[in-house]
Amino acid sequence: MKSPLQRALSLVVTLGLMLGALLHPPPALSDGAAPATGLVPPLLEIHCIDVGQGEAVLLRTETAAILVDAGIDGTAAAYLNNRGVQRLDLAVATHAHADHIGGFPAILEQFQVDRIWYNGQTHTTRTFERFLEAVLESSAVYQEPLRGELIRFGELIITVLHPERSAADYSGHLHNKNIVLRADFGDFSILITGDAEIHAENRLLASGIPLAATVLQLGHHGSRTSSSRAFLKAVSPELVFYQAGRDNRYGHPHREVLLRVDRYLEAEIYGTNTGGTLVITSDGSSWKIATSLTAGETTPPLCIDINTATIEELSRLIHISDTRARQIMERRPFTSRQDLLDVPGIGPGRLREIEDQGLICPLPGTE
Q1: Same domain (yes/no): 218, 343
Q2: pTM of the entire structure?
């Protein structure tokens, strides 16, 4: 059964599709045929576009171009124009927030888009209305994909991992039904998570779907609402990236998320807030990454070293007041986890909570 959004779109689009069928034949589901990109086949490029505090990811092979989210404005469209993209085989709007769909009107106006995926959940913002208007005015085939659906463009396979059920009548948080995609290219793979949070991650973990991938996009711009330890370990990527604006007001990426990545993964990590647009290239086996900016300052330590931290740094730890921070400093150095249990007021339960907070550097005897 079609969702209300699908029915509304169908009523407006059907006549236009019938009239334009002779001029615009429908695209094939498999083996996209976009204009040649200049890439040497077989090669996949993943452009993690710097759109500020938003997300836009372009996947490009010699014969296909796929855009997942479009940022908040026309930045993504300008980037595609500068790279010579003329057509998108597939555009995916993961959910209705402005920093993911705000740029789609420019995309749909400036490029031929064969197919657009959206989860079907309605929203009340003017940005969402403009997004729908742009979809209606385009010739793109509109679909609401569910878990297990896939589309193939030569060696590139795009599979939907989430949501498992339609979001058309869902009234919960927009992030819960956010579209999550897996892209496979030979032995190389990437999970594109959009703003999926721990709720969606838990659904994926419970599903039993294989999640291991070469590259992981950290959910929700690297927010603490996403990227649980269990999810990170299940994906076990070699490369992690996030998309966030420089000096953004949300504090993305959150420090504890970077710490979890550092502690539980052996992965390289990159962000658009420090590296600008990131371009990952793979031949289906190996991969490499290039950044458009060079960081002008050293990266601060990801974790709080109990043996060198200041009172201010120690006080960021749960259960650590200024008084307890001074007691810790008086008992340095700590050479084992057991040593911390000798600090007044820190018992096994509190120590576990301190470790679970994800800010303290590991000590001998910890995981």
Answers
A1: no
A2: 0.73
